[in-house]
Amino acid sequence: MSDRTKTLGIGDQAPDFELPTQDERIVRLKDYRGRSNVVLLFYPLAWTPV
Predict the structure, then answer these.
(1) Does the pTM of the predicted model rise above 0.70?
(2) DSSP string covering 11-25, please?
(3) CA-CA distance, 29 to 32, in Å (whole number)?
(4) Arithmetic mean of pLDDT, 35-50
C-alpha cells in the first residue's frame, strides 16, 4: 500500500499535505505542527446542487 492510500488509525501522525483554500491560498499541515490542534472537515455535499 502506498502512502497516498494508507489508512490512518487513532493516534497516528498525519502525513504532511497541502490544500488550496476557497480564496486560493495554499495551506500546509506542517505550518501548524507544534502550534495548535488541526481539525479537518469535509463537506462532500456542500457544493453539490440539490
Answers:
(1) no
(2) TPPPPP-EEE-TTS-
(3) 6
(4) 73
Report residue 12 as a C-alpha cell.
497516528
Rounded distance between C-alpha atoms, residue 8 and residue 12, angstroms:
6
Are 32 and 38 in contact, with CB atoms under 8 Å apart? Answer: yes
Cβ atoms within 10 Å, residue 45: 8
Question: Which residues are paired to 26 by β-bridges?
Answer: 20
CA distances from 2 to 6, 11, 16, 33, 45 (A): 6, 20, 15, 23, 28
What is the CB-side half-sphere exposure of residue 19 using CA atoms within 13 A? 8
